[in-house]
Amino acid sequence: MRRVRLIGFASLSCSLLALTACHPRFRRETLGTGTAVLAAPGGGGDGPSAAPGGGGVTVAAPGTHEIRWAIQVPRAMRVGWTIDCGGTGQAGVAGETLEAYRERRLAELRAARDRDRRTVAAISGAALGQLGAGARVETPTGDAEAQVAVDGQAAGAAVADAVIADDVALPAGDVGAGEYRGRAEVEAPGPGACTMTLTAADGDDPRGVTGGFEVIRVVDTVAERRAARAEARQVAARARIDLQAALVTQGADPMAQQRARDRADAEARAALELRLRAEADARAEAQAEVDARAWSTPRPRPAPGSSSRPACRPRPRPAPGSTPRSRPAPASRPRPAPG
Q1: What span, in angstroms and rounded, lies between the C-alpha atoms of 186 and 295?
Q2: Which has fewest Cβ within 10 Å: 40, 66, 225, 312?
Q3: Under CATH, which number does the domain 23-93+174-220 receive?
Q4: What are phi and psi for residue 307, nearest 5 degrees?
């Protein structure tokens, strides 16, 4: 029996887990995509200048919105971005300076060169292995023998140094053109539009900088169902109020139901009091009948020669050798004084 219960509990747990997995709490709805607006350098001029096809994305309801953005730059530079959704937004800086890009790329190229050298050295050393050479010389005065050995690892390292040059430089035209990506979450206070503005963070020339973004609404399904139930209750309450007002307008009595309920309660209390009174009267009549029957029943008379008084109970005699208990003397009453 215990095993059956454990199996049933495990099955129920698996079912709940599967139900939870199939129905995630958060649902994401894509609202649309927009193009970032490029602000004028230094904040002067006539204000932001829209990129080709620039525009925002309409937000119809308040709540959490996820913004996925991408910025394309013609060269390495720092770009400031600002996202606004209905008056609430976030801001940040993406990218790196050209100097930082060059240092990072040169470090990456040096690391790649060192990896290539180690690879070539390992392959060459394994191919050469341990090489050796010997020679024997005979002279009238005696014989001589010499052995020469070459280390394969050292030979492989020499081959790698000869094959891979030490000079590391960026390719011609490599100025760090590319794309920066990121995401942000914004709590929109109400309906409105989401826009994105780009600025050059270090005073660089912003020409050629473009960007775009995608707005995704994050919906809490639990809160959504709770709000739907609350809205349904409010709609039902408003419908009841409107119906009652319409009936009153047509001459209906709004207190008729309450008066009918009060009248039913009063009738129920009266019926209960009548029933309790009837039960009390029935009990009183039954008790009176029992008493009358007891008085009308004749008492048995004693036989001739027998005393009507009950027989006296004999007093117990004291045991031999025990001291009999003496009765206390009656208390003397004071005599009244003469005259």
Answers
A1: 98
A2: 312
A3: 2.60.120
A4: -80, 140
